[in-house]
Amino acid sequence: MIDREAVRSNANYLREVRPIDPEEICEYIEGQPHPAVVKQTLREEAFSLELVERADGTFVPVEKRPLEQRNWNPKTFPDTYSFALEDQLVGRYGANWHRGESGRKLRESISQLKEDYFAGAPVEYDETAALGYAIYHLPDYYATMGYVLDSLAEGGLLGRTLRVLDVGAGSGGPGLGLHDYLYGMPETDDFDPEAALVEYHAIEPSASADVLEAMLDETVRNFRPTIHQTTVESYLAAEPTEPFDLICFGNVLNELEDPVSVVTESLELLADDGTILALEPADLETATGLRTIERAVAPPESEVTIYAPTLRLWEAKTPDDRGWSFDLREDLAVPPFQKRLDNGHSADEDDTEPGTFINVDVQFAYSLLRIDGERRYPFRATRARYAPMESMGEHVTERINLLAVKLSHNLSEGGNSLFLIGDGSQQTDHYAVLTKESGLNRDLADAPYGAVLAFENVLVLWNDDNEAYNLVVDSETVVESLSGH
Questions:
Q1: What share of the chain is helix, strand, coil (3-state, %, to 5)?
Q2: Looking at domain 79-282+326-370, which of 3.90.25.10, 3.40.1550.10, 3.40.50.720, 3.40.50.150 is its CATH number?
C-alpha cells in the first residue's frame, strides 16, 4: 500500500516550485511505487490538495481567484453532448431510433411525462422515459444553469475549487451547464480543462442515472463525478459531513413530498460561503411553488439570505403576493435529436402536430440562497425616501417614490409595456406600466431581469380586473437602474 502522506508531503513541497510529476515523486516514496500508482493517489487527493491535472499527466495548483463572469449566452446545445445522447439512443434502439416502434414509444413517453407533470401526478422513469426526458429537456436545462451561475460569478462568489451536490440531477442538463460554465464550452476558444476543480455529487434515484452517467463521461478529468442512486431524503439521513459550496435543486422541488424540510436540512450541509441554487420551470404552479418554498426557508428572522432575484429591499418584511416571477432568455437552435424525433412520426400517430417534441425555450424561475448575508445588490429602502409596497393602498391616485426589483420581462401582448416588480414587502401583485417612454424612464424597459430600480414620481392606481396595483410610468416619471445594465 502506498504511503499517502508521503505523496501529499512531496506534492505540497513541489507545488510552489514546479509542476508535480508522478514519475519524479515515486523516487522519493518508500518502495518506489509505480508512477501510475502515484498518479492515481494524486487524483484521489487532488481536491484536498487543490491540484488540477494537466493533459501531460502532471499536477498544478488550481487558481485561487474566483471564476470570472462568462456572460453566458449559448446559441446551441454542444455537439459533444448531442452525439453522446444519440450514441445512447442508437445503442438502445438502433440507427433509426426516431422511427417505427422505438420512435413511437419515445414520443409517447414524452407526451405522458408532460401530461403527468401538468396534472401534478407522480412521474415515473423507466429507460424509455429517461431517454425521452433527456431528448426533451437536456438543452433548456443546460442553458438555464449557466444563466443562473452568471449572477454568482458576477459577484465573485463562484470559486474554482467546488464541492457540488446536484439533487435530482436527471439526465445531466444542470450538471453539464455547470461544467461548461466553469471550463468553457467544448470545441471553443475559451475551453480550459484546468480552470476549476470540482467534486460533483449527483443524486438521481431513477433510470435517468444511466443516461446521466453516460453524459458525465464527456466531462473533463478535473470534474470528478459521483452518482448516488438514492433519494435525497435517504442521502440526507445518512448525515454526510463534508460541506458543499453549491447545492443545486434542478427542477426537482416540485416533485418532493416536503421540499421545505429538504431545503432546510440541506442548509446544514452548506459551506459558510456556499449557495443553494433552486431552479423550476416558468409555469404558474412550479414558479409560485418555488417562491412559497423560498419564503418558508428564508423568513426575515432567519440567517438565510435571498441572494437573487427576489431581493428583500425592506428590513424585516416578507412578501405575500403570488410570486409568479421568471426569467426569459434567447431560444436555442433546435438540436438534431429533437428534430429527428419530431419528424419521425408515422401517419397513424395522433401527435403529428409539427414542433410537438421541440423544446428550445429558455424560461425559468430560480432562487439563490446563502447564509453569509450576501445579496446580489446591497440596496435597502427607507421610509425617508420610498414608500413600501405593503402600504400601497394608502397611495392610490398619488405619485410616489419607490424602490423595487424588476421581476419579469415585458408581459404585455400589445399596448403599453408591463413589468412585474416587487420590493419584498408586497402583499399583492404590482406592475409597472410604461405609458410614455422617455430618456428619463427608459431604464424600466432596458434593465435586465432582477435589476434594482428607483422610481421617482410614479402614479399609483388600483386594477380591479387583476386585483393588482398598476404603477404608471409616464413622461413625469424618472426610473433609474441602480444595479446597472
A1: 35, 20, 45
A2: 3.40.50.150
